[in-house]
Amino acid sequence: MPPTANRKKYSDQLNSLLATARQSGVIPVGGWAELERTHGEEIYAEALYQLTRLEFAPPEAKEAWLGVLVHQDALRRKLARNVSLITAVCDYFLSVRPMVKEPILVELVMLRQSEEGALRDELTGLFNRRYLNQELPSEMERFRRFGHPFSVLMLDLDHFKQVNDTFGHLAGDQVLRDLAELLHQTARLYDRAVRYGGEEFLVVLPQVSREEAVAAAERIREAVAGHAFRFEGRDLEPITVSIGSATFPMDAMDSETLLSRADQALYQAKITRNAVAAYQDTNRRHPRFPLDIPVNVRGMGPEHKFLPGRVKNISFGGLLFETDGAAPPDGMLEVIIADPTRGARFFTLASVRRVEQDGENGFHLGLSFELSSPEEQKALMTLIEAHAEPRAA
């Protein structure tokens, strides 16, 4: 996951290593190696961002970090005294690899307070859209590394204009603050609630599937519907929310489309109001991607031979392919798509959904995937990103 301006809470291990390095000037090499084994090269990007607020891709960050260590050792030998990590980092990016022209000294607490303020909505205290625009790419990168999907919920207060018209805008502001508090109460520790604009809110749900997102949305909807909103000692009218959800990468493979599809689901929920709708509920098909690449399928069991064909289009729900051989039997099939030139290989199980004859010996087959693991989802995404451009579902 690349660094972002909000920077998720750094792990206790990373904070401990940086604190040790600041105090003693000594880098515990074994500790960094252990962190890399656990988190990958992203840990170097995280560390450099925390120390400098410079952003690096993980491989570049590791190279720069090793350069800092070499430079620190050279300064220590040349000056015949201990050289702190901060001093080495500052001098490295000023003189060895110039990336900073006019650095200033700022206490870390003050810097974090300033950054936090820039990413918060003043009225509700929730994160703002600037935060969201930086966080979604990080969540997508986490999927590429670990294979965990994530979901977003888009919320809109029902008939909010009537609240403002009847009770005044100060009462409306209180409703928005109360909703923000309800989102905190119903969220998990690592969910992130965002004021998207006006009476629209958004919740980012890491490692949450489509079904789990709907359940989370229902908890929020029920909490809002059951809450007694008050202003200056007066009970306000009952207030409800409509919620739409979308899941990455099943519903979209970029942040803009993901938000658009959550908004489409929200539109469906607003038809009845005080409701929850998932993007899949209003459009049963996954986004499809045209693809022209070989595929091999066969029935389960060694008695079946592989049937070669070519993919026509693919999605996270399944694929359509054409073959000149006999259609495979109904039931579960093994599916293998490999492209050594791009390092993409995908294997999964699928079931036959439709068979259409094309000419005398040709067939078009529609398969439905049984994606059973994060690794399969990652492999499929790698394949799609390597070859395909999206087509409207």
Structure report:
Helix 11 links the parallel strand 6 and strand 7. The protein has a six-stranded antiparallel beta barrel. It has a five-stranded mixed beta sheet with strand order 2-3-1-6-7, with helices on both faces. The N terminus is likely disordered. With 393 residues, it is α+β, with helices and mostly antiparallel strands. The chain contains 13 helices and 14 strands. The two termini are 29 Å apart. It folds into three domains: 105 residues, no CATH class; 162 residues, Alpha-Beta Plaits, CATH 3.30.70.270; 99 residues, predicted glycosyltransferase like domains (Thrombin, subunit H).
Brief account:
This protein is of the alpha+beta class and 393 residues long.
